[in-house]
Write a structure and sequence with these properties.
The protein is an all-alpha fold and 260 residues long. The protein has a domain of 78 residues: Tetratricopeptide repeat domain (Serine Threonine Protein Phosphatase 5, Tetratricopeptide repeat, Alpha Horseshoe), CATH 1.25.40.10. The chain is built from 13 helices and no strands. The longest helix has 54 residues. The N terminus is likely disordered.
């Protein structure tokens, strides 16, 4: 075996040095990665805690407090779509539909396949009296989830406002097929049937609404109105009085004008 030259010895030493440095560098990077992951996990935990707090405040109707918590979630994780949807919903409950819509649109921008965001966007547009655009959003929500009962309900309400009573009834019926105990679907379907002068079927829908939700003052009012239009003034008055007791002032106005 030949003796190693001085250059070969130097090269070996240099190679060992490079190998040691590479290991040190790898360990350093692994440490940095671990620290970043811990920081990310901490941020994720903080974001989740703020989100839980926001949802709790939302459920307790502290919508302004909920918005502040959702603001913090979005600051921590700007791509958390649920936070945008929840913040938008809180703004909608405060009747700030314009800014609510911005949050829903941001959620859609982040995830175009989020049916909840499309549905909420449709509701905001419905409340801004943009029913045609609302229907397009409800269509998209239904395309993503054909069993999304709330989207059919929202689309039916938008069609009602556009005087498409038949289309509205079809959507409310679809809602009921998916969610047979959805009182709002029966109520709105009954209202559409009333507008079509189909009072008998409308009363059946109001009956079911009241069976599901006995404290629904509007259902008693609408059933009384249908009965009145059928010439049943005495039964209509009973429903109107019940509606008044439940706090619906429009029923009291009706009694004063038509049931003297």
């Amino acid at each position: 075996m030949k003796a190693l030259t001085e250059n070969q010895i130097y090269a070996m030493k240099y190679l060992k040095l490079l190998t040691r440095k590479a290991k040190e560098y790898a360990l350093l990077k692994e440490k940095e990665k671990s620290e970043k992951m811990q920081q990310g996990e901490q941020k994720d935990f903080q974001g989740l805690e703020y989100y839980k707090q926001g949802k709790s405040k939302f459920e307790n109707k502290d919508y302004k407090g909920a918005i502040r918590d959702f603001d913090k979630v979005i600051e921590i994780d700007p791509k958390f779509t649920k936070a945008y949807c929840s913040r938008g919903s809180a703004k909608a409950f405060l009747q700030d539909y314009t800014n609510a819509l911005k949050d829903f649109e941001k959620a859609i921008e982040i995830n175009p396949n989020n049916e909840e965001a499309w549905h909420c966007s449709g509701l905001a547009k419905f409340n801004l009296n943009d029913c045609n655009s609302a229907i397009q959003d409800f269509n998209k929500a239904i395309e993503l989830n054909p069993f999304y009962s709330d989207a059919y309900l929202g689309r039916g309400m938008a069609k009602t406002n556009l005087n498409d009573k038949i289309g509205a009834i079809q959507d409310f019926t679809k809602t009921i097929e998916i969610m047979p105990k959805e009182a709002m679907a029966y109520l709105n379907r009954g209202l559409a049937k009333t507008d079509l002068h189909n009072y008998t079927d409308a009363i059946l829908d109001f009956n079911i609404t009241i069976l599901i939700d006995p404290q629904n003052a509007v259902a008693y009012y609408l059933r009384g109105l249908a009965k009145f239009n059928m010439g049943n003034k005495n039964d209509a008055l009973l429903d109107m009085n019940k509606s008044v007791k439940l706090g619906f002032s429009e029923a009291d106005n009706f009694i004063k004008e038509y049931c003297k």
